[in-house]
Amino acid sequence: MRILIAAAGSRGDVAPYTGLGGELCRAGYDVTLATTDTFAPLVRDAGLEFRSLPAGPGERGSVTGKRELMRTAALFVTELGQGFADVMDEGTDLLLLSTTTAPLGWHLTEATGTPSLGVYLQPTSPTGDFPPVVTGSRSLGRLANRATGRFALRMADRVYEQAVAELRRRLQLPSVSPSEMRRRQEQANWPILHGFSTALVPRPSDWRSGLRVVGNWWPHHEATEQLPHEVEDFLGAGPRPVFIGFGSMAAGDGERLSEIAVQALHRAGLRGILQTGSAGLAANGDDVLTIGDVPHALLFPRVAAVVHHGGAGTSAAALRAGVPAVTVPVTADQPFWAGRLAAIGASTDPIPFRSLTAERLADALHRAVKQQVYSRSAARAAHHLMTENGAGQALQAIQRLTGG
Fold first, then answer.
1. Are residues 238 and 210 located together in one domain of the fold?
2. CATH code of the domain containing 55
3. Considering the chain, what is the average pLDDT of its residues?
4. Considering its fold, how many domains does the chain have in total?
5. Model confidence pTM above 0.85
6. How many C-beta atoms surround the C-beta of residue 388 within 10 A?
7. Tens digits of per-residue pLDDT, 195-214?
8. Structural domain of residue 311, as residue ranges?
């Protein structure tokens, strides 16, 4: 059976599907992951077939302002829809659709008769338990949370209007709005698996039955892979360092963030490993090491704390390692995940990105490293994550769906 996974976005939006795809391959499925060219090496290293999708807005330069952001997002998903149609072939037996690709994939499912399943990394369905993840707001109460959740979906529908119209014309399907198609999927109880841990987000009791939280899908890395020699040497040269990285966020802020990081480490009396990332973090010194991409699964268990932007993948990786976090959320769903980490006691209170100073970071690091309450909470969450098998749960769901 041939499975096509479609995902788009930053590294954190794509890498988990390499782990999920690898599990499906081991079970005997022929798996293709369609995403942007940037991540072709990740896909192929996991033993999956790669197909190219158009680049996301993050690869087009910075965008400022809500209206410009909406226009850029609409343009991107329009191109994404056409690219998705290009990579979809008659041999596909099952579509696995991410949060971003699902509103496009539903129309391909209708046109081809290919069954599909949602594989989301964020909770998007309205619930009284929390407000929409993209708003970054605090809980407004159960009724207001659900209302704002429905509003957030309607706003997302607007982003997909042009994309859906053009895609359905290409597929020679009658006109249907994104909101109408979404309602159809909800009424049909379209199944969605959520690849995050119930340690952070327990399944809301007011969700429909087709929505499940199964646990994380961990990015693929080879069992024989090791940390670079310079990282091992640095780790062995003194006390556990702090990891500081912002992933695909904060492009153009590298100089400011590097200076803040070095000053905060000095104030807190800690060593640090800076991951370059899109921000371009860089610093030199006996107590600071700058690195490129390394698997979080190998590095995080070796550090004293993780300073990060609150992305879903990095948040989960820090929890998996049982390491306390200091979060500096930048945008999108990052304030949500940062808030969840703080709520379970595995991190200090989030520091908004634009409010970050060396003094605030040093204080948070001192508390995260010295106060055992944070490490104990992170360790409890790590134990919880060990009881989950997100990829295995997804495999079982796919086997039930396909009769395999």
1. no
2. 3.40.50.2000
3. 93
4. 2
5. yes
6. 17
7. 999 999 999 999 999 999 99
8. 229-386
